[in-house]
Design a protein that fits this description.
The structure is a homotrimer of 274-residue chains. With 274 residues, chain A is of the alpha/beta class. Chain A has 11 helices and 9 strands. The first copy, chain A, has a 9-stranded mixed sheet, with helices on both faces. Chain A is globular, with a radius of gyration of 17 Å. The two termini of chain A are 14 Å apart. The interface between A and C is medium-sized, with 29 and 29 residues.
């Protein structure tokens, strides 16, 4: 993985990232995308998303606080991204929480070719369980640990093969895989689950990373996870030092991405390739 | 009031709190709910709220930035919460600011049995003024002071009796009461009115407190107010120490809830029972 | 410019500012308005905006994340503001990014008399390019520098004359002008473009400034820009001192407005009048 090249491709090109995302975490997503040196635009009116997506270099689609109107915009944007060969990521937030979200996600997958689907392990499992054919029975998996890592890697590669895209899974240990190769990433901190939007911000970051690294998206997406995990660790160091709480942690997490250097990444990156 | 038991019931059970709330303060509400150890979910599409509410342990309904679609979702969620005996709180934000909000609030009250209605004194007064029968004429009251406290306590108990629920009032002095018993709470700081969302965050916090303390909701709701007031005081101490402003104060307020211990509460709680 | 008078007119009157704005930056806009001592209300349902606008002292209309429903509310609010002689500002966010936004902005301009239109230089240029008559050909201008300042001042005065309002332009150097007089403002810092919402917050701030300074709006609007620019410089000083990033910078920017004194303004204001 050529860390400098991937990062510089973002900072030098300042890609415009179109986000259609929930209204809970959208401000944090925008600031995270700015932190890495890309430029966010949010727009979710079906009458204009074709215009917006077509001038963007990446598209980040997020199912949180979904509604009927925003879904129409998401679908149209995704189709536009495919038409213009713009990298597109799906974050199937809370797919397990309602029948509507399952139906929406499957309608998207049937019509749009995603480059990355990013979610937590239970979201990715829900995605897979709702498809008709299942090669691996890993439906019981709800976290990734050193003990089940080989099994989960096979499972994720299987899902990546089925959807012809990168599957990027957040858990105690993260996995970013296509059907051939998996990054298993040990960076990160449990504190990241005590703020809202850590998953949404990571999806925004992944979209920025792949948007200007189209010929090596797996490496770029894995590096987004590594940077995010390191930022979570660095923000936790600050939290302990200052005796602060989760709201300040959120700011320190974004700040850590803003301040991160290739040197930080090289010193702290902790991952394996399977 | 058994402080340890109420707090531990939240932290041990990590209840899922469904929030249908305005788009101004929803990120802060989510982080406040996470700060106390509960888990927020935001969803406001009428087609899915039945699914979402039915898996939650508490429901927080907020009228800020209301629109026609979100109102439909609010009503359906409230009815679902009643059906499954899930504690439900109403925050009638800005009820006095438009005829539409008055109409919406009264439509909710006619169909849904709330466990708590939380607002500032003018919102609670507006709620009461718009009902047809009035036992107490306290329509002139716009703040709660040591001088009018007995009168206001009677007034709030009367409203609690009318609506068969806890009425939780934010003011210079707070009152949390059912028809029999009132907590009068002196914690808090005027700085809390210099940030957006302090009321919305408190409503989220109250919902988390009552969700896992169903057999002693009045105590739990009063304790949420006490914790929030203490957090406001502690955040103000930090603000003076660091010469910071209202944006940092918002973060310090949430942080203070994250860091709060039963010991902090015992040392600083300042309330009376009427 | 009578700095003390303009600022005191806000702090003494605590004007209520009605904002119809995008869901990305609305929390920051609200906290910025609170920072200067005014009071924000957000409401975007067409059925209630007439009620809300009519009790406000200023109206801030923002086209970010526009949708069909919010546009109806924006138009009705603007008409209401005109009817009650309430100062009204338009922020044509991303007018160049979609045909829909161009159409919406022109529909607004045709029906509503704005007091201020505030945008970055490319938004203001797009506004002008889409009108039929053009007296100045400055369509190539994409930043304001010491070299093109005289030319741009003429251009902005021309636009101000055409729309019968103040045109307030954010760029490396800012211009706030009516058809007769232009403030050229050198305060500010490039770091402000590394956070989301710096333009939206400035529009909120301008609305607060003009709302209680109706007989000297140009001075008030220019002073809002000066304060905002100084806040950006002071927040950058803190950022360097603490080695923080863009998320903390956002908070420090709002804090700096909260903490700003007339003395700060007099010491750091850097502007010329043309």
């Amino acid at each position: 993985m050529d860390i400098e090249r991937i990062i510089n491709n973002i900072k030098d090109n300042q890609p415009l990232i179109h986000n259609i995302t929930n209204y809970v975490t959208t401000n944090d997503v925008a600031n995270m995308i700015l932190a890495i040196g890309a430029s966010p635009i949010m727009a979710d009116e079906v009458l204009e998303v074709e215009d917006i997506t077509s001038i963007a270099q990446g598209l980040n689609l997020n199912l949180g606080t979904i509604n009927q109107n925003r879904f129409k915009a998401i679908k149209k944007s995704g189709l536009t991204a495919n038409q213009y060969h713009i990298p597109v990521l799906l974050d199937p937030v809370g797919i397990g929480a309602s029948k509507l979200r399952q139906q929406y996600v499957h309608e998207l997958i049937d019509h749009i070719q995603f480059d990355v689907i990013r979610g937590n392990i239970s979201e990715i499992r829900a995605l897979y369980q709702n498809t008709s054919t299942k090669g691996v029975d890993a439906n019981y998996i709800d976290t990734i640990t050193p003990d089940n890592i080989l099994e989960v890697v096979s499972y994720i590669k299987e899902i990546a093969k089925m959807f012809h895209c990168i599957i990027a899974v957040s858990s105690a240990i993260d996995i970013v895989a296509n059907e051939d190769k998996a990054y298993v990433i040990y960076n990160g901190h449990p504190m990241m689950s005590r703020i809202t939007g850590s998953g949404c911000m990571l999806s925004g970051l992944c979209t920025a990373f792949i948007s200007t690294n189209k010929d090596h998206m797996l490496d770029a997406c894995a590096l987004a996870f590594i940077c995010n995990g390191i930022a979570g660790e660095m923000a936790y160091d600050k939290m302990i030092e200052r005796h602060s709480g989760n709201a300040t942690y959120r700011n320190d997490l974004i700040d850590a991405i803003y301040l991160m250097t290739p040197q930080n990444i090289k010193e702290r990156a902790h991952y394996e390739i399977y």
